[in-house]
Write a structure and sequence with these properties.
Length: 176
């Protein structure tokens, strides 16, 4: 079932989905030594989900005539996301750093449960005392589950969305 349509077995159905996200992470070091920093990380952002479905069915009455029915729908959802956790930054050489963080959160509001787990690993090379380049890899797991409503104030839909996002990140770093 996609949105309000149920598809029967035997139909040719093509689906695509995609996601993008924008985020900002703030880090505060509990301990800051010459070559090591360890502390708290708080991330906030927005997730852009898209989904498309296209179905084609053909029926023949026994002759050359074939009836073809086509159907397509698109949907999308933009939602906020946030996470809290820990980070570590380690000096590997004069201008080289390794950085990692692990963040997550789980909440339940009325009939909606949501959870996030995010992890990242990156290498940084500083061109000067303030400006550096970063290459890293991110992995995230996101889940939203809307259960049957318990009262009139709840969302009257049910369903579950869960997916993972992973990919490379490239950036410029400015250190204050």
């Amino acid at each position: 079932m996609f949105r309000d349509t149920t598809y029967v077995a035997g139909l040719r159905v093509n689906t695509t989905s995609g996601t993008s996200q924008g985020f900002l992470t703030y880090r505060f070091a509990f301990t800051a030594k010459e070559k090591t920093q360890i502390g708290a990380a708080v991330g906030v952002g927005i997730i852009f989900l898209t989904a498309d479905i296209a179905a084609i069915a053909g029926v023949t009455a026994g002759g050359a005539d074939t009836a073809i029915a086509q159907f397509s729908r698109s949907g999308g959802f933009n939602g906020p996301e946030g996470s809290i956790g820990l980070f570590g930054r380690f000096m590997l050489g004069d201008k080289w750093y390794l950085e990692t963080d692990l963040r997550g959160i789980a909440i339940k509001i009325d009939n909606i449960k949501a959870g996030v787990v995010e992890a990242a690993l990156a290498g940084r090379y500083f061109l000067s005392d303030k400006v550096g380049l970063e290459l890293g890899y991110n992995l995230g797991y996101y889940e939203v589950n809307i259960e049957a409503p318990n009262n009139f104030a709840s969302i009257d839909r049910t369903g579950k969305i869960s997916y993972t996002v992973n990919g490379w990140r490239v950036g410029v770093v400015y250190a204050f």
